[in-house]
Write a structure and sequence with these properties.
This protein has 107 residues and is an alpha/beta fold. It is built from five helices and five strands. The protein has one domain: Oxidized Rhodanese, domain 1 (3-Layer(aba) Sandwich), CATH 3.40.250.10. Strands 1-5-4-2-3 form a five-stranded parallel β-sheet.
Length: 107
């Protein structure tokens, strides 16, 4: 897994074939998330099973609140054979502090 700062992560997720995974809870995701990200909560019991079904040929950019849970998620995915993994090292906190846009899920 390659750690990226907010600027590097922003550039990475604009590339084709990059899937953005928000590994926080559904509540956190609904409050704010990076546009076009998919929510897969690393703390859920089925995270391993869910991620095992993902396409291993794609690039995955992972983030959480501060970068810890996304590292954990990346370890799980690496164990499953995923090769192209990128982590937003400071999480969504760094993303927001760097002035980048987040969106929220309308209820």
């Amino acid at each position: 897994m390659i750690n990226l700062n907010a600027s590097e992560f922003d550039a990475k997720i604009s590339e084709p074939d990059v899937v953005v995974l928000d590994v926080r809870t559904e509540l956190e995701f609904n409050q704010s998330h990076i546009q076009n990200s998919i929510n897969l909560n690393v703390l859920e019991d089925d995270f391993y099973l869910t991620t095992s079904g993902l396409d291993r040929s794609k690039n995955y950019a992972l983030y959480c609140r501060s970068g810890k849970r996304s590292l954990d998620a990346g370890e799980v995915m690496a164990d499953l054979g995923f090769k192209s993994l990128y982590n937003l090292s400071g999480g969504i906190i760094e993303w927001i502090e760097s002035g980048r846009v987040v969106t929220s899920k309308a209820k």
